[in-house]
Amino acid sequence: MDNTKRYERLRERYMNGDLDRRKFLGLIGAAGLAYGLHTPFARYAHAAVEEVRFDGWGGVVSEAFREYAFEPYTKETGINVVDGTFGGADEYLARVKASQPGEYNIAHLSGVFDYARYHNLGLSSTLNEDNIPNLQYVIPKLVDVFRGVTDGKLSCVPYDYGTTGLAYNRKHISDEEMKEKGARILIDEKLKGKIGGWSDWRTRIWYASLQTDQDPNNATDMDAVWEAIRTHRDLALKYWGSGAELMSLLAEEEIYVTEGWSGRIYALQEQGHDIGYMDPPNGFGWQECLFVIKGSPMEACEELLNFMLAPETSIAVAEGQNYPPALDPTKVDLGAKIPTLPAFDPTGKLAGLTFANPDYWNSHEQEWSKTFGRIQKGY
Amino acid sequence: MSVEAREARQPWVLLSPALTAVLLLLFVPLAFIVVYSFWLRTATGADQAGFYLDNWNEALTDPFYRDILLNTLKIAGITTVVCALMGYPAAYFIARSKGNKVILLLLLMLPFWISYIIRTMSWINILGVSGAFNTALLSLGIISEPVQMLYNETTVILGLVHFLLPFMVLNVYVSLEGIDETLEDAACSLGATRWKSFLEITLPLSLPGLAAGGLLCFVLGAGTYITPLVLGGPTDAMFANLVFEAIITQLDWPLGSALSLMLLAVLGALVLIYNHYLGMAQLMKGLG
Fold this sequence. Notes:
Chain A is an alpha/beta fold and 379 residues long.
């Protein structure tokens, strides 16, 4: 509950006759005195609540947030949402690390491993879930995995999920060929110079694990994984670094096949490009969350999260960004479009998706990100 | 206070805002980077303060960093030579043209009005598979299938030349402008050909400008990371990309600091060599 609502309720009690005038004025006066004496920095805290900073992935995702969430939220609450973007979670983490507490508030983070990284760096907060009643509509599996990282508490709310599957140009690669080759299509000599790939070390290792018939959450032969990454590097035209670049490379036919983000590929298909999308067995599933960074104005952030999780907002954002919302389809009617989105699970159990195990990935992060950086450059 | 003392103090008073800005915005952050380079990154990504030589040891002894640094210097060197070969005739033409000098200089400055990233990305629309060049070749029947021209070392150099050429032209132009044209006429009147008078008089006198342009192109080229990111292939990274990756991707600020100081030391040494032989005055003229 925010301060405005508290005062409104106090006023309501007074108007209803539950409080006499003397008591009402006394409570208001005491609140004012407590506020004034609270801290010399209260003025700054109050100023911060006038706006909340949100950082996301940009492109169609940010457009959807702006149109369906931020503008109505500002209209309803008067709190301005400063809308920032980042190219990747790593880049954003470096910015947050260099910032002052409270400078960055809410981030659209991808993957539980990022949630764990932020928590390990002391950047997590503790949400008051009572202020986010719409959390009840979220798929329990998505919430529980975050609770496991932060001792049963939450520093985020799950928001959407998707996959990093295989995207291919149907003019040059048939659906049958994709089914037959699966993840190995990314190391197919025949397509040399027409293969792309995300320059993200986790994605490269995940797909190299699939190419070498290993469990992506427990690869035992890392030499084989690195070799598969080298093979892919030598056949690839370019590593892409953002969703916009991924879409451009596929749309311009610079590349015929790459792994890609399900929502971005759906957007390409909506634009009329004949791009196929396939999740290979054990394809890379992920969930995104709205993470509240330590030092943020919690009540204002919780209000925004609750607003964003409201089914009508959540569905509108999901339809705009082409990723299924974290809302449980058994509890909420998600409309006509969402069931057609890639990776959507009508059961709400998400049993068909393989998510990254945060313990496994984060325990190897330092070593693997460095090794990939070298292999990427020809070593 | 005596008049002499006041006069002696006046330049420092006038310089103090600039010196404060340089101190706060350059030397203090640089000092932070130096301190950071002796820290360590822990497994969780947090930094461990202290005095450790591990990052410097890695940066100076690992052949991976040495090779990328050499490749960066090679790319910057090639770019500088190409800029000199293309920039000198252009600067000469502008300096010797009558009447339309202002328009030509304005045209030279025009690219600076557009973001460097946009200018770099424009090559994708020119050289891409469905770009202007391939489309023209296909429609003229010269090729039957689009040619892959992007995402290699050549396009990285092309992007760098596009970015740095104006710096070269401006420096050479400033140098040529300062040469008395009658010297060439005098040489010709004494029997030298135009080409001979250029080689014996104009070129040697304009060398400081060429060197200043070369230094700027080399230093800026060696420190770039956007161009290889946008126009390079998987293995076309330059040294600044390593710094970016260490700091951003790996969240290893201590190693990133050591690497950035290493690049700074190499490029700083070049500037010092230039200053020793040619002085900074010519460079200031070109930048002015």
